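cache lookup: miss for this entity combination. No prior model stored, computing from scratch. Input as submitted by user K.M.:
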Amino acid sequence: MAGDISIGELSRRAGVKVTTIRFYEGAGLMPAPPRSEGDRRLYDAGHVRRLSFIRHARELGFEMEDLRTLLELSDRPDGSCGPVDEIAGRHLAAVEGKIAKLTALKGELSRMLETCNHGAVGECRVIEALADHSHCGGEH
Amino acid sequence: MAGDISIGELSRRAGVKVTTIRFYEGAGLMPAPPRSEGDRRLYDAGHVRRLSFIRHARELGFEMEDLRTLLELSDRPDGSCGPVDEIAGRHLAAVEGKIAKLTALKGELSRMLETCNHGAVGECRVIEALADHSHCGGEH
DNA sequence: CTTGCTCCTACAGTGACTGGAGGATGCAAC
DNA sequence: GTTGCATCCTCCAGTCACTGTAGGAGCAAG
C-alpha cells in the first residue's frame, strides 16, 4: 500500500514536468504530500490519478480556475454533475468560437499568400493586406 | 502637414489602447514620437498606419517577434518579399495545426457531454472521461 | 479658480508555466 | 570511505502580450 513515488517518478507516470508539479502544489491543484526524512515529496497512486486528470483537462484547454472547480466536484461524488456539464458546455462553446475565428483567419492568410506575386516588398500583397484593414470586416 | 495627433486620438483611430501604445513603444514596435512642450507624445498619419498594421497583424495572431521582422521589411519596400511570405506561410501552417487540434478537442468534449446522463458526479461521464486518459490517443 | 479630462512615468499583476542558482540527499561504484 | 552523479530541495526571475494602478502634471471650459 505504501508504494511511495518520488516526484520524478510521478512526473514520468503522469507526463507532467517536475517543476510544473511543484507549481501545481503551490497553486492548490495538487495537495502537499507527506515528506521523507530527507524532505522529499512522497506520492502514491491517488496522486498519479489526480495529476493525470489535471494534465488531461489542461490539454483540453480548461483553465486552472475551471480545474479547481472540477477537482472539487470530483472529490464529492454524490453531488449533482450539473456544474460539471455547465463548465464543459461553456468550454465547448468557447472552443467552437475559437475554431470559427481561426478558420476566418486561415482564409485571410491563404488569400494574402495566393494573391502575392512574390516580387519586391513594395508590391507584396501580404504587407498590403496587413496594412489595409478595410476589407476584413473588423469592428471599428 | 503638422496635424498632430495625441496618444488618445491615435488610440481611437487605430483601435489600440493607450497603455498598449506605450507598451509597443517600449517594445520597439512603435517609434518614440516627438513630444510637445508639456511632454506629450505627438503622432501623425504615418503612426496611425503603422499602428493599424500592428493591430491587424496581432489580430491575425502574428507574434511580436514576427511583427518586428514584418515591420522592418515593410520599411524597405525594394527588398524581396520572400521572408514575408515565409513568415505568413509558417503562420498559416500553425493556424491549420491549431484548428485540427481544436476540432479533435471539440469532438472529445461533445462526446463527453453526450454520454453523460446528468445524474450524480459519481457517474458523471465528463469527470470519468477527464480522469481516464486512455482513449484519447495522447502521447505517453 | 475649480472641475474634469487627458496625459505622464513607473511599477505590479495576469496565466500557466519554465529555467536557473545554489545547495542537500541518495545511491552505486571504486 | 569517498567520489561522482542523478535527483531532489527552495527561492526567485523570466516568458508573452498586455492590463491596471498610483501619484502626479497639463490643459480647456465654465
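stored under new cache key. The CA atoms of residues 70 and 76 of chain A lie 10 Å apart.
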